[in-house]
Amino acid sequence: MNSDTIIHEIKSQAEKLFPKMVEIRRHLHMNPELSYEEKETSRYVSSLLKENGIPHDTGIGGYGIVAKLEGTGEGPTILLRADMDALPIQEEGDKAYLSKVPGVMHACGHDAHTTSLLGSLLILNQIRKNWRGKVIGVFQPAEEQCPGGAKMMLEDGLMEKYKPSLAYGQHVHPPLESGKVAFISGEAMASADEIHLTIKGRGGHAALVKDCIDPIPIAAQIIQAAQLIVSRQSDPFLATVVSIGNISTPGGASNVIPSVVKLTGTIRTFDEEWRAEIHENLRRLCTHIAAAHGASCEVDIRKGYPSLYNNPELTVKSKKKAQILLGEENVIDMGARMTAEDFSYFAREMPACFYRLGTASPGQKKITPIHTPLFDIDENALKTGSMLMAWMVVST
Questions:
Q1: Residue 342 belongs to a domain with what CATH number?
Q2: What is the per-residue pLDDT for 308?
Q3: What are the residue ranges in the chain where pLDDT is below 50?
Q4: CA pair distance 43, 230, nearest whole angstrom
Q5: Are residues 182 and 232 in the same domain?
Q6: pTM for the full model?
Q7: Residue 9 burial (CB < 10 Å; 0-12/13-18/19+)?
Q8: 213 plus 359 within the same structural domain
């Protein structure tokens, strides 16, 4: 069967499955679960796989699932990945499929990722005679919180048991219209580490400053000085972010100097050696600034996801495949992003390609970003997501 015929079959299957995919995505959207709590989501995915005769293993790295399909003849084992967890955000809006769970919603598109992977497996199951090798569909828990479900699934023996040789993943991208995809070659997403600082001074009456060691101006100095790591200690050609996202004190009042100030933030970069240097430089900076004022600073830097590297050769091939399936006008290049993804753990084990899936409605003027209460997608993107993953397998 030639490629045109196979593409027609993939598109036909996706069109046929589309109403079911919408149903699945809306069920997931209405019933979100936070990282490490995806019990019912995992059960629902398992039931759909069972219903369609797709063998799978459950309980991999927590609530993770690995679905298994075999084509006709020898070929590579390809890993297709989707994440299942939601975010602690209260959804807003008036759509019929709003989250039923107070304070939790699929604001990052993981419901679309899971649905697209299910769709691709159902397509591949129907056209099994047209592809070779094996596919493992990885439904991963806990992408949104360190240490991350990808790492947990790998530690649970995923590589040793299933032996994948290359990996694909996708992520919704609201600025891009549905029907379009974007590729990034090489370094694609940054590493992400958490900063937790506790500055301890001596509290007291806000009018009696001589009797206090005020941790608030010390915290302000630390915040400003941390930016010198980016502007004066970093190689200008190395993308680096050091951001403080939260400042808090226990209690507090207009006439009270607190004893403690807590700061939390993030460190982002692409270079592992520089990443380690940032940690050391920040520790030294914080402890010395605090000590200079008679205070102390506890520095807790929690190492998160490594940077995500898209194999250049695989990415070039994948982009060409996408152009054949979707048309050249619907496939674009993107630059690297300072956001992070634990798909990076898979990409460190094998050649991998992580691409962006357009989710905006054609002509949509106001784009609602991910991680916001009004985030939603054009559900036609589910067809693109499922077709492209299936085509990546069939055309390998």
A1: 3.40.630.10
A2: 98
A3: none
A4: 45
A5: no
A6: 0.94
A7: middle
A8: no
321, 172 in Cβ contact below 8 A? no
Question: How would you label 190-228 residue by residue, b for 16+ Cβ within 10 Å and e otherwise?
Answer: bbbbebebbbbbebbeeeeeeebbbbeebbebbbeebee
Spatial distance between the Cα atoms of 111 and 370, rounded to a whole number of angstroms = 12
Q: What integer pLDDT is reported at residue 364 of this predicted model?
A: 86
- 155 shares a domain with 18: yes
- Provide the pLDDT for residue 363: 85
Domain identity same for 87 and 159: yes
Instruction: Specify whether 271 is catalytic.
Output: no
pLDDT, residue 2, reads: 80
- The per-residue pLDDT for 1 is 62
Domain boundary among 267, 302, 337: 302
Residues 236 and 259 in one domain: yes
CB within 8 Å of 329: residues ≥ 6 apart:
none
Residues 52 and 88 reside in one and the same domain: yes
Catalytic residue among 33, 38, 143, 341: 143
Residue 264's closest CA among 192, 184, 197? 197
Model pLDDT, residue 251: 81
- Rounded Cα gap, residues 40 and 46, in angstroms: 10
The whole-angstrom separation of Cα 140 and Cα 143 is 7
- Which of the following is catalytic: 33, 83, 85, 378? 85
Which residue, of 302, 335, 351, is where some domain finishes? 302
CA distance 393 to 396: 5
Residue with token string 């915040």:
223
Place of tokens 């009797």: 211
Residues 62 and 145 in one domain: yes
Q: Known catalytic residue: 328?
A: no
Task: Enter the DSSP assignment of 88.
Answer: S
Of the candidates 124, 138, 112, 99, the residue with the CA atom closest to the CA atom of residue 21: 112
> In terms of residue numbers, what domain contains 50?
3-189+307-394
222 within 8 A of 289, measured Cβ to Cβ: yes
How many domains is the chain built from? 2
State how far the Cα of 111 lies from the Cα of 82, in Å rounded to an integer: 9
Could you tell me if 371 and 340 are in contact, meaning their C-beta atoms sit under 8 angstroms apart?
A: no
Q: In what order do the strands lie in the sheet with 56-60?
A: 56-60, 64-70, 134-140, 77-83, 166-177, 352-360, 181-183, 331-333
